[in-house]
Each structure stands twice: as C-alpha cells, then as structure tokens.
Design brief:
The complex is a heterodimer.
Chain A lengths: L17 H20 L6 H26 L7 H23 L3 H27 L5 H19 L4 E3 L2 H7 L1 H4 L1 E2 L2 E2 H19 L1 H11 L1 H5 L5 H27 L1 E3 L6 H11 L11 H20 L8 H21 L1
Antiparallel strand pairs in A: 1-4, 2-3
Helix pairs in contact in A: 1-13, 2-8, 2-9, 2-11, 2-12, 2-13, 3-4, 3-5, 3-11, 4-5, 4-11, 8-9, 9-11, 12-13, 12-14, 13-14
Chain B lengths: L9 E10 L2 E11 L4 E6 L5 H8 L7 E6 L2 E3 L4 H6 L2 E4 L11 H5 L6 E2 L2 E2 L1 H14 L15 H14 L4 E4 L8 H16 L3 E5 L3 H7 L2 E6 L2 E7 L5 H9 L23 E8 L3 E8 L4 E6 L5 H8 L6 E6 L2 E3 L4 H6 L2 E4 L3 H5 L6 H6 L7 E2 L2 E2 L1 H14 L16 H14 L4 E5 L7 H16 L3 E5 L3 H7 L2 E6 L2 E7 L5 H9 L4 H10 L1
Parallel strand pairs in B: 3-10, 3-11, 6-9, 9-10, 15-22, 15-23, 18-21, 21-22
Antiparallel strand pairs in B: 1-2, 1-4, 4-5, 7-8, 11-12, 13-14, 13-16, 16-17, 19-20, 23-24
Helix pairs in contact in B: 4-5
The chains are: A mainly alpha, B alpha/beta.
Amino acid sequence: MSRTAAGTTTSARWVPNFHVLGPLLALVALIALGASLNSNFLSYGNVTNVLARSAFIGIIAVGMTFVITSGGLDLSVGSMAAFVAGLMILVMNALVPSMGVSVWVILIGVATALVAGLAAGLLNGFLITRLGIEAFIVTLGSMGIYRSLVTWIADGGTLSLDFGLRQLYRPVYYDGLFGVAWPIIVFALVAIAGEIVMRFTAFGRHCAAIGSNEQVARYSAVHVGRVRIATYILLGMLVGVATIMYVPRLGSASSSTGVLWELEAIAAVIIGGTVLKGGSGRVWGTVVGVLILSLIGNILNLASLVSPYLNGAIQGVIIILAVVLQRDRQAD
Amino acid sequence: MESSSAPAALALSRVTRSFGPVQILFDIDLELVAGEVHALIGENGAGKSTMMKILSGYLAASSGTILLDGRTVTFADSEAAENAGVVMIHQEFNLAGQLSVEENIFLGRELRRGPFLDKPAMREQARALLDQLECHVDVRTRLDAISVPDKQMVEIAKALSRQARVLIMDEPTAVLTSREAAVLFRQVERLKASGVALLFTSHKLDEVKGISDRVTVMRDGHVVAAAPTHSMTEDGMAEAMVGRELSGLFPAKGRADRDANEPPALSVRALQVPGFARDIAFELHRGEVLGIAGLIGSGRTEAMEGLVGLRPATAEVLVDGNPVTLSSLSRSRDAGIAYLTEDRKERGLLLNQGMRENLTLLALKRFDSGLLIDRKAEAASLEKAVKEFDIRAPHPDVLVGNLSGGNQQKLLIAKTLLAEPDVVIIDEPTRGIDIGTKQQIYEFIRALTRAGKAIIVVSSEMSEVIGLADRVLVMRGGRIAGVLEGEEIAERPIVRLAMGLSDEHNTDAFEEAS
C-alpha cells in the first residue's frame, strides 16, 4: 500500500461533485421546463414577480442557514415576521398624528422592525444558549407567542398602515433600480454578504465548527455561546429586513401574515445542501433552494399540466429527495 | 497450522480487499482455532480493522475465501456472522445510550413470553453474565450513566449472551485500567478453556505476550509474521510491525541549561477544581517536561482542564512571572498556554471536516486579516504542518475522520502548536496509537523542549511518563501525592504514590493485578 504525503500531491484534481451541484442542476432543469411549457415564463414581468415574492423567504433563509449550520433551528421566524410587521405598522400609525406623513415616520418604522427583530432573536438565543433549552422547544414556544401577540395587537383582524404612509412606502416593494425591484436587490445583497461571511470569516468557520461538534469547538477556544446567540440575532435582524420589504407590498399585517414561512425557509436551506444537524452550510445553496421552491409554484400556475393545488405535494417530494441525496454524501 | 488436526473455527484464505483503486489487504491467510487466543498486531493503517470486519461480516472480501469449520462461507452481513457464532466487539461501542444495561445486552434478541418481553428472565440472565465478568453495575441503569470500562464489560456480556464461538475484540483494553484489564484477561482464559476461538488487537505488547497463544503481525496490508507467541519477544514484535529496528523508544532526556534567575514559564498555586482537584501547586520551566501520573479518576485531566479555563476553577497563576487570569480557553491561548485533549475524536478534531479547517481552528485569529480569513496562508500552514509532522493523508481534502488515529493525533498536535504556545499541556499524547507513531510523537515533544517550550504530559501509560518526564507529579484523589525527580522516576515509586501505599506487600499485590 503506498501512502502519499498530502503536501506532495498538489495536483488537486477537480471532480464535479453531484451532491454540491445537484441543487443547481435541478434549478436549471426547472427553468428549462418552465421555458418550454410557457413562453411567458422568462418574460421580465414573470421573472420579477417570482424573484420579488421569494425575496422575503430568501432573506430569512440566509439567516436560517447560519442557525442550522451551527446546529440550531428556529421555528419562530414566520410568526416573528408577522409580529414585527404588526408592531411596525402600529408604531408608524401612532406617529402620523404628531409627525404627519413623512419619510421620518417610515425610517422610525424601519428602525422599529430591525430592533424588534434583533430583540426577538436575542431572546431566542438567550433561552437556548444560556438556559440550555432545546432550540426546537424554545422556538416552538416563541412561535406561538408571536403569533398570538400579532393576533392580539390586530384585535383578531387586520392592522392596516395609514393610507398616506402606504402611498409613500409603496415604492420600496414596487419600484427598483435599473428595472430591478428593490426586494430583489436587497435579497441579492443579503445573499452575497451571507455567502462571504459563511465562507471567508471566522464567524462562518466557527458556526460550522460548532455544528460539527460543539465540544471540539469549545476545546478550540471558540466562544460557543456567543457565536450561537449571534446566529439567532442575525436571523432576527434579517426577519426585520424581510418585514421592511414585505409591509409596503400589502400595507397590512394580520394573524395570517407569514404563516408557514419558517417551514419554507428551513426547506430552502435543506434543499440547498446545508445539513440539518449542522456542520456544513452553503448560503448560495440556500438561494438556489428558495428559487427552486418558488419556481415550482410559478410553473404550476403557468402551465395547466398539474393542478396548482398540488404545489405543496411537489415541494414535499423535492425536500425529501434533497435529504436522500445528502445522506448519500455522508455514507462515503 | 502444525498443531491442529481439526479445521480452524474460522479462517481466511488468500483474502484481499480494495476500496476503489486502493488495495488495503493482500493475500491474507489467518486461522482462528477453538481454545486459542490469537493476537493481531500492527501499526494503525496496517489493515487490522479491515481484516476483522471481513471476519465478522461487516465487510465483504474482494477476493479469497472465508472458511467456517473448514467450509467456505459468505457472511451477507454482521447478523449472518453472529448467527454463525462469530461476534465482534468494536472499539467504539455499539450500545444504545438511552437504554438500560439489560436492554442493551438483549437488544435485537429479546426474550419473550408470548407477545410480551420476559423482563424478569432477561434481568436475571444479564445479572448472571455481568457477575461472571465481575462487573457490578445495576442492570437497570441507563447505559449513558455507567463508566467506560463498565460499557466494555456490557459489550462483552452481550457477546457472551450470543453464544459466541469466535470472539473478535478490537483493542479491548484501550479504555481499561490495568486492574480492569486483569478481569478481562481472566474472562479470556475462561472463554478459551470453554473452547471459544478469540482474536484481539492491542498496542500493548506486554498484554499480547501475556495472554495470547499465537501472534499475527501485519504491515501495510500484508501478514509479515505469524508465529506462536512464545517464540517471539516484544522487541521482535515491535520490529516486525515497524519493519525497522527501534533503537530506544524515547529520545534522550536533558534539560536545557537555564538562567537561575529566569522566572518559571508557568507557576500554579492553590489550583482548586471543585469536585475534582484541590491545592494543586507546581512550577514549570522552559525546556522541561513535567509528567503528571495517577490512576484514572485521580483528577489529572480535570485539574488541567480547570487550569486552562475549560472547567470552573480557581488558581493563582503566573506566566513568566506575571500574574494572569485563565478564566477561559481563549484567555489561556492568548497567555501562551495550550491544552491538547485526551479525547481527540470527541473534543480534539472535527471528524467531518477537512484538515485545513481543523488545523487553523484554535489559531484562527492569526489568519483573520481584519475581516476575512486568509485562505492562502491557511493552505500554506497546512502544507508546512503536513511536512513538519509527517501527517500522511491520501489527499489534502480528506475528511479528518478518515485519517488513521496516529495521523489524527499528529494533526491535533499541529493544530495546538499553531497557536504558538509557550506552555503545552498534552493529555494522553499517544492513546490508541501504534508504536512507530508513538516514537515520532516523543521526538516532537523533545524537539519542543529544545525550542524552549515548557511541556506537561498527562498520561496513564507509566512507561511514557517515565521515559519522557524530567519531573513527575503523582496525583491521588484530587491532590498531589508526591513529586519525583531524576533517578526517583521509576515504576515502583509512582505506583506507590498513586495508590497511596506505605508497605511493599501492597505494591506487589498491585503489580500482580496489572
């Protein structure tokens, strides 16, 4: 048996890894399928529509990638988004009588969303790391709490943003730069920043180390608790960012806002190749996962082959398939 | 085999095994005879584990035949092998942590009465099996709650309950104290007398010499020697394994000359680790190796973990004469103190990550140029470490879990030293490592002292402490039982201090047990 020292075999051969490229290939196949089924599929209007709608889940899913990579989970993001949206509308509406319809009111609303997201993430992270309660349980609890809180502040109905403010705020969702809608731009920026942080910073490396083996991280002088809390805070703030992009779309929040967002975000992360039990995360994969999920719905709507009511079923199959592929990778 | 007329209970004939393009085993012949203890030795990566997995049905041979009582068999899986009476006990246990001891022993073949479990019968049999093994845990205890040696005994009880005719044990004594190993060896004798064929691996050649009847030595996938144990010396076994002469396992001692006025590199006073260690005090100079000996449970590891901030502890610590507070591992690192854990698989290395990520994890700050990690510098560091520490990996992107134990340990040492510590605390530097790599690691440790570093070696291997340390601190029951220096460093005084003995008689009793 010939054993070769690692340093001497520098001829690193690049082997295409199906497990890494799988989600990307699936996305390309979906685009090809969509284009062949409906000529409208690749039109500017449809592409903008699909991307802008997936931006909310996408921004949240980037944060979720960090949480899952470090071995955590957050089920509360959907109701957190609804609560933050409700709070933001409440604060802005309350300021209209004194400050009038001005950009300042909207900026205060934006700040409210970011601070509320940060605080909600901090609370989740604190309970999980400092009190040592399972992430699943903490966030299952906070999911119920935020959902109930938004129902309460909306008094069981819908909270609507002041009409004047809505006109002022509307462009944040509907306008854009050089024909690219703002939500798409924000999603892209968040994704690029997330990819860089995950791959090229100590924080990203520490997340993967903690998710692989928390003990090893601790014995390597990684501040496990701090990094963990930071992932939940980051996710909370990104929920705030997503809410900032979401509120101008409908100008309202109710108890049905953001329902099942947490599951879509988690599904996107998993489809993208991040391991659910942590240790390995890919932000670009998450972006691909988000796009796959929203394209399936879009294609079903455009083509009359399969009923759009089966959207959920097909997404479910994709999620399970993605995990089967992941398992193959770990077996070798 | 010359002595046996009956066919071997289990035999391999011209067995080979390849993983992809890499051939691991070449034309292996092996015979396990009923009523005989067979030792399989070789360096890590020699192919011992692969061979044992083929014997016990976990892996299929690429070519060649397996013979059970002289008839060709093919084990579809380990269950088929177990049904044929061939049972393997893995080094990493196959036990369910949340189940009780009794449930583990009967897992997969529970006794039933009608559709229901016959719990009283299982409990009684489990109790009887463990009594036989002199293991006194309550069979209703959850497995996670019992000690590692007890888990080993539960594994053996499980094998016994399956009426094993051929019992294969992968390093059964690696996790046992000498007293527990003695109990195990008595069981081995008993099984042997009842006609079981046994195969075991060990890195401890005195054990091999002591309890085996035949020895097979492997190197690089070949059987390089097979002989009755009495015809081989321990040195002969070691040389066959390594393929070269071992001139002295330990490098020469010799403290570097030092300035008498130089303050100690590390001075520890009144170290208290609640529940584990009390009033630990010592000084350590540059160029010196301080050995810490003591029985398992004497608080050695806990004292060191408390010192570097991995456990709640208090102490007065001076580094180069300056007081420091080591409240966390990162503070210790920044003060120039590094701790290398005894548990490289669970605490030392990320097994599902690459060598680069592992190497730089402790010293990541050094590669963090402001915001981003300098990947080029990381790659250069890895290349340097691979050369410097002779880390042998099939390719640079290999997952660390796929490296052999010795190469993992070298990587762990490289990782710890990358933080450029002045004081290095190494807990069990060579646990579960072959003799050739051991020798290399001892050389690394000496080279560190020559470079002016201060080293603490915590070890339960007596020969290691004696061979490496300039001074030995013996712990017992969480306290320092004594300090030995120079000529005093020898097995007998260390044992006496570790056991708290005062008369010769008891010392002899201990040595008989070990």
